[in-house]
Amino acid sequence: MQKTQLIGNLGNDPELREAHGKPVCTFSVATTERWKDQQGDRQEKTEWHKVVAWDQLAKTCAHYLKRGARVYIEGKNRTRKWTDQNGVERYVTEIVAKEMEMLGTPGNSSTPPGYSVPPGHQDDVPF
């Protein structure tokens, strides 16, 4: 079983387009880990995650999410491979979202915090 869960903030406004005849939305989510080191100093590390949502979930993400919004994403990791225009093989690992819940902060969304999209509102589309 493969399951990925993130709570973080959107790094950009979602981008909605069409691929394989279906709506697809892409955006990035930043997750930050904070801890104290051996000297007691606060440390922080931020990771960036590429997220892809398909079908109805894609439309919902594009409509409600904005840069800076706090969000919970559940899905699975996928790595895609392609050849660029120079003939170089490229790879990207992204999270294919199955569920999204807006954790919201005032002013960042037009829906109440805790709005979620239940599973089954999006199909698994192979790359």
TrEMBL record:
Keyword DNA-binding: yes
GO molecular function: single-stranded DNA binding
Top-level taxon of the source organism: Bacteria
Subunit structure: Homotetramer.
Listed name of the protein: Single-stranded DNA-binding protein
Residue ranges of the region described as Disordered: 1-21, 103-127
Biological process terms in GO annotation: DNA replication
Species of provenance: Desulfopila aestuarii DSM 18488
UniProt-listed Pfam families: SSB
Keyword terms of this UniProt record: DNA-binding
GO cellular component terms, A-Z: nucleoid
Annotated HAMAP family: SSB (MF_00984)
Keyword DNA-binding set for record: yes
